């Protein structure tokens, strides 16, 4: 793929690899698509969902991807849409870098082959998220969004802990063990429920998740379900980063019925996660200024709408009649249309009117003549 700096323009030539993406900007869907080059996204778990999400973001021209996993590619992974047989034995992060760099060499790829649930792995994970070398002017951490694509509760809780401590927005995703349902969820520390606010029922019941796996039973995996969940995850990632459309707070997927439930989960005011409670306090304290800023923006937008009416020109001479003034009518008559406008149908043909009937004599004179004729007969 050609250099992004040279090619990510409004040029719609077939040789431009970004022309279809830039069409979003030309059509007014996205205000400034080029900003995607400034964003960093971390993907934790390069499995069925994470690998496809990484490929989609790479094709979209994301600026930087951080990839985390500790597994190796196996032949059992070939049912998915990313890994290749010749990559068996490679770590998933190395295989991902190999594939993604061939797709788009302009994306900055950073791979971390580690287990984030270990002490050392967690420290490296936190340190890498805070690294601002890619964009020194970025606010908060060194990444704009974290995507959790792991397949177990323990790893999700680690991502949750890190993001709560760093006040980092992240998205969680998952596919069921039977591969016919999945979900994505946006988590904003302090504003939405964190992953510890509403734990899964089995975990809340005190059951060790590691004892749930049945010996000899492998979890199912459908590339279709994985691809759909990855697509929903990346679609909402783009909406969040490029500020267009509505970002789903929670979106489920049931493959058997093609059902997409949505919901919004508020934070638990008695959450067991101390960092989450701290973020909730900060969110409440900042609410007045945040609401004032939102109101000011709304007022500014309404002023702009008043100053610049939607129809600034009226080339058709259309006028609006006030209901309180019924006597006012449009000045345009049927015979006087603006230049360039014509009647859709021709005027009706004019038929000659029937000739006026001939004048008849006065009825009184007729009676007088009749009387004289009768008198003449009687005289005979």
From TrEMBL:
GO terms for molecular function: ATP binding; metal ion binding; UFM1 activating enzyme activity. Residues 345-369 are annotated as: Disordered. Residues 18-272 form the THIF-type NAD/FAD binding fold domain. Pfam families: ThiF. InterPro entries: D-isomer_DH_CS1, ThiF/MoeB/HesA, ThiF_NAD_FAD-bd, Ubiquitin-activating_enz. It comes from the Eukaryota. One of its GO terms (cellular component) is cytosol. Keywords: ATP-binding, Ligase, Metal-binding, Nucleotide-binding, Ubl conjugation pathway, Zinc. One of its GO terms (biological process) is protein ufmylation. Belongs to the ubiquitin-activating E1 family. UBA5 subfamily. This is Ubiquitin-like modifier-activating enzyme 5. The lineage of its organism: Eukaryota, Viridiplantae, Streptophyta, Embryophyta, Tracheophyta.
């Amino acid at each position: 793929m050609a250099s992004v700096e040279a090619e990510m323009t409004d040029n719609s030539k077939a040789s431009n690899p970004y022309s279809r993406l830039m069409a979003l900007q030309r059509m007014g869907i996205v205000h400034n698509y080029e900003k995607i080059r400034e964003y960093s996204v971390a993907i934790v778990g390069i499995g069925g969902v994470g690998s496809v999400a990484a490929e989609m973001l790479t094709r979209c021209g994301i600026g930087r991807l951080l990839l985390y996993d500790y597994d190796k590619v196996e032949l059992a992974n070939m049912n998915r849409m990313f890994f290749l047989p010749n990559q068996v034995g490679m770590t998933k992060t190395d295989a991902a870098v190999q594939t993604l760099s061939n797709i788009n060499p302009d994306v900055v790829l950073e791979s971390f082959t580690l287990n984030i649930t270990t002490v050392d792995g967690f420290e490296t994970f936190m340190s890498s998220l805070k690294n601002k070398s890619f964009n020194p002017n970025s606010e908060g951490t060194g990444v704009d969004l974290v995507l959790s694509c792991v397949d177990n509760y323990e790893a999700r809780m680690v991502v949750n802990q890190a993001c709560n401590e760093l006040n980092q927005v992240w998205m969680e995703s998952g596919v069921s063990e039977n591969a016919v349902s999945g979900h994505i969820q946006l988590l904003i520390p302090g504003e939405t429920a964190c992953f510890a606010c509403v734990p899964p029922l089995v975990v809340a019941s005190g059951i060790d998740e590691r004892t749930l796996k049945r010996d000899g039973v492998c979890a199912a995996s459908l590339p279709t379900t994985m691809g759909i969940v990855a697509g929903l995850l990346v679609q909402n990632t783009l909406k969040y980063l490029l500020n267009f459309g509505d970002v789903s707070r929670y979106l489920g997927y049931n493959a058997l019925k093609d059902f997409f439930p949505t919901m919004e989960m508020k934070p638990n005011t008695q959450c067991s996660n101390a960092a989450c409670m701290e973020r909730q306090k900060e969110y409440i304290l900042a609410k007045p200024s945040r609401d004032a800023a939102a109101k000011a923006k709304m007022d500014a937008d309404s002023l702009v709408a008043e100053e610049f009416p939607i129809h600034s020109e009226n080339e058709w001479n259309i006028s609006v009649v006030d209901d309180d003034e019924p006597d006012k009518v449009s000045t345009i008559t049927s015979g006087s249309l603006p230049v360039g406008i014509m009647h859709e149908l021709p005027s009706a043909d004019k038929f000659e009117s029937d000739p006026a009937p001939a004048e008849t004599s006065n009825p009184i004179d007729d009676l007088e003549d009749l009387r004289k004729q009768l008198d003449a007969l009687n005289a005979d």
